[in-house]
Design brief:
Strand content: 25-35%
Distance between the termini: 22 Å
Radius of gyration: 22 Å
Largest sheet: 10 strands, mixed
Structural class: alpha/beta
Number of strands: 21
Oligomer: single chain
Length: 475
């Protein structure tokens, strides 16, 4: 197949880095994975935001709300973002590297955080990060009641404070997280600031930045396609990367499906006929910012019978593409123990969740139905098409961290992918069985051009003009 069918010229240039053609040629030859047997060894970019661990006075301020004084244990950096809380007991490295937390200050209800440290950035047999959900810490800030500066675990290589400082992310301990969560539950998710080494100034309330007004998906999505091969199986799935977690990719690749990840706004309907399935990933922020993605999904469902699955934000985008609407929840669902009822079987699953929006099922068109429902607040947890292999879940079946009760949904999806592939083999006998070795050889092996989090104030300072210029270059 022609490479240009998959990669726009500008994206191709980003992927190949044409200033170093000889070096890249050697690298891509070593990474050729047409048969899926060669390990993926993505480059590890150097850290550029590291600062010494700050132990200064720290202030956590909720806009038009209470002010909490504590102690810094991360980077000496002042940031603003949306304050949200998670009740998960473990899995803080996975949570903090989840791109869905981009732009948010994450408050942990678990009293002690950091006791098992931070693991290395080791990779598994698929070349995916073994212990993290993305290459960088994604949350804008961290708030805990008590932090363990001394850690103990066989995988640990540094403390939580050292990691936050390396990543340029401020962190606060010694505050009453019970009072914070009580306020957020009563008032809803709120804008907040972390200030290090300074007294609180009420006049600075006007400087709070609302991440919901920013297209956060653009910041966490790859800027050019990249490929993750599977050593087993021959299916090929196109992933729309809205901030995909490593364990979502692992859940697909480990079940025999090679994946090619595309930018969130890529016109997937133009290349879907080269794939056996389309998958829409999780991601941060308001789903209505992703109008291009919604339009492309609408075109895809109009023109193809390809199986489609969405998770979290991907589930919401699928609903928007179907004609439904989404709503913002008061304080969202962020935990590892939320019950979701399968309305088709009557079985209840304990699920891992991280979202602030939900699908309004009263707006679903007639050919769709509700699939799962949250047994705590009755919000929607899934939708499914009545006659086509298309469904989405608000919770995370890949659960990193959290329970794996619902991981069978990946098997359900890939079974429909296999049926579609077999049907296409009959209808289009000349269709390639496996991903093109040339495509696999030339595409990047890791997310391309994703800028690490720098706090919402710094993101805003970068300006919309920079975003528009980048978008124009990629067009």
């Amino acid at each position: 197949m022609m490479l240009s069918r998959f990669v726009r010229p500008s994206l191709f240039a980003q992927t190949l880095n044409l200033k170093r053609p000889l070096a890249l040629a050697k690298q891509t030859r070593s990474l050729a994975t047409g048969d899926g047997n060669t390990p993926r060894v993505p480059p590890n970019p150097p850290r550029t935001r590291a600062t010494p661990v700050s132990h200064d006075r720290a202030t956590f301020t909720i806009r038009d709300g209470p002010v909490f004084n504590g102690k810094s244990f991360g980077a000496k950096s002042n940031i603003s973002g949306e304050a949200v809380f998670t009740t998960s007991l473990v899995g803080y490295p996975e949570s903090l590297t989840d791109p869905s937390y981009r732009g948010q200050i994450l408050v942990f209800t678990q009293p002690l955080i950091g006791n098992y440290g931070i693991p290395s950035d080791a990779r598994d047999e698929h070349g995916l990060l073994r212990y993290f959900e993305s290459p960088n810490l994604q949350a804008a800030g961290v708030v805990v009641a008590d932090v363990a500066e001394q850690y103990s675990h066989w995988t640990a290589v540094k403390s939580l404070g050292e990691w936050c400082a390396e990543e340029g992310v401020p962190a606060v301990s010694g505050v009453d997280t019970r009072a914070i969560v009580t306020y957020l539950r009563e008032q809803g998710s709120s804008l907040a600031r972390i200030t290090i080494g300074e007294e609180y100034d009420a006049d600075q309330d006007e400087a709070f930045v609302d991440p919901e007004q920013i297209n956060l998906v653009r910041k966490v999505s790859t800027k050019a396609p990249f490929h993750v091969p599977s050593a087993s199986g021959s299916s090929h799935v196109a992933v729309i990367d809205c901030g995909v977690k490593e364990n979502i990719l692992r859940s697909l690749v480990g079940r025999g499906a090679s994946v090619t990840c595309f930018p969130y706004d890529y016109p997937i309907h133009k290349v879907a006929h080269h794939f056996d399935g389309v998958f829409i990933s999780n991601g941060p922020g308001d789903p209505t910012h992703c109008q291009d993605t919604v339009y492309h999904l609408q075109r895809l469902m109009e023109s193809s019978q390809i199986p489609i699955m969405g998770i979290c934000l991907g589930h919401q985008l699928l609903a928007l593409a179907s004609g439904a609407r989404t709503i913002k929840l008061k304080y969202g669902n962020r935990a590892h123990n939320i019950p979701a009822l399968d309305l088709t079987t009557g079985r209840c699953h304990i699920t891992s969740q991280n979202h602030g929006y939900a699908v309004d099922t009263s707006t679903l068109p007639a050919d769709w139905k509700e699939y799962f429902v949250n047994l705590n607040d009755s919000s929607n947890e899934g939708i499914i098409h009545k006659s086509r292999p298309i469904f989405g879940t608000q919770f995370h079946p890949e659960a990193r961290g959290g329970p794996l009760d619902s991981s069978y949904l990946f098997d359900t999806y890939l079974e429909s992918v296999g049926r579609y592939k077999r049907n296409q083999a009959v209808l289009r006998p000349m269709r390639e069985e496996r991903p093109s070795p040339l495509l696999v050889d030339l595409l990047a092996k890791e997310r391309v051009g994703v800028v690490p989090t720098t706090g919402m104030e710094n993101l805003l300072r970068m300006g919309n003009a920079g975003e528009e210029a980048a978008a124009a270059r990629a067009a």
